[in-house]
Each structure stands twice: as C-alpha cells, then as structure tokens.
Structure prediction request, 117 residues.
Amino acid sequence: MLGRSSHGLFYSIGQMIGRNIAREASHEHERFFEIVSKKIKERNFVEEIYFDNDTVTVFGSVEVHNSDHNTCDILRGILVIVYEFYRKSKNKLYCEEIECASVNGNKCVFKIEEDIV
Prediction:
C-alpha cells in the first residue's frame, strides 16, 4: 500500500477526473450539482453524496479503509475542481476532508475554502 506521500498524487488524479465531470455538468448550471452527483456515483467513487453550500457529505467512499489519517484524496481533488468550475473562480480553492470514515464514523465530510496558502 502506498504511504502518506501518495496524497498529492491521488489529489492530482482527482483533479483530472473532476475536470472531466465538471465539464460534463457545466452545460446546466441550475442542475450542476445534481449532474455531478450522478457522475461521481456512476464512476463508483461513492454510494451517496450530498452538496450543501461549501460542505459535501459522502457515504460509501471507495477510498475508505481502516487508517489513522484521512484517506479520500481523489475525492478532495474531484470536489475542488467541481467547485472551481461551478463558481467560475479565478482564485484557487482548497478542499479539506474534515471527517473521514477511514478514521472514525460512517461518512466523510469535506469543506471547500478559499486557497489557504
């Protein structure tokens, strides 16, 4: 299994996937998150995903496994690009996994923020 050093690699892979998903959904701004949700589930990354402003809650992430740290780096990459597309943002955004089922619980929760660097 890859160690913690793989976080950046998985995040970048997620950004590429997110770019494709966001492009597929970008033609219908009013239904953007509905379409994104469907596309993410179709690709079997999650069982359920809920968008609520800048917070995303996920159940059944394919990235979850017993761990002492958050593991959903591909999803973080997907979500950050999805939000950048939706907002048509000139500024970079950041996606933090604030709760991970790999560590504790049954869901993963992500928070989208302005770039913190």
